[in-house]
Design a protein that fits this description.
- By secondary structure, the protein is mainly α.
- The chain has a domain of 58 residues: Multidrug-efflux Transporter Regulator, Chain: A, Domain 2, CATH 1.10.1660.10.
- Helices cover 51% and strands 11% of the residues.
- The chain has a 3-stranded antiparallel beta sheet with strand order 1-3-2.
- Helix 2 crosses helix 3.
- The longest helix has 21 residues.
- The radius of gyration is 24 Å and the shape is rod-shaped.
């Protein structure tokens, strides 16, 4: 392994190049798409502007898809929106 001496200006240029090449692309990647975020029943009700009982009724009737995670129920934001669009209702009426 060979060591090379560089001055401060060269070091700054090297670090800046690495930052632009490696770090900035990582920061620009979305961590999680907002539409794929899982919501609790309460969060789903608040998001749609409906009551918690409406969420439970829609879930029971098969009108909105849901997931079980252990003993908890979760909803995908994108699927909640899609179910509203499918029946052509404003969000607050879903």
């Amino acid at each position: 392994m060979e060591l090379t001496l560089i001055n401060t200006q060269e070091l700054r240029a090297l670090i800046s190049g690495l930052f632009d090449e490696k770090i900035i692309p990582l920061l620009q990647k979305p961590q999680e798409k907002e539409e794929d975020k899982l919501l609790t029943s309460l969060e789903a009700a608040e998001f749609l502007g409906v009551s918690l009982s409406t969420i439970h009724n829609r879930k029971r009737d098969g009108k909105i898809p849901f997931y079980r995670n252990g003993g908890k129920i979760a909803f995908k934001k994108s699927e909640l929106l899609a179910s509203c669009k499918k029946v052509q209702l404003p969000i607050a009426y879903c």
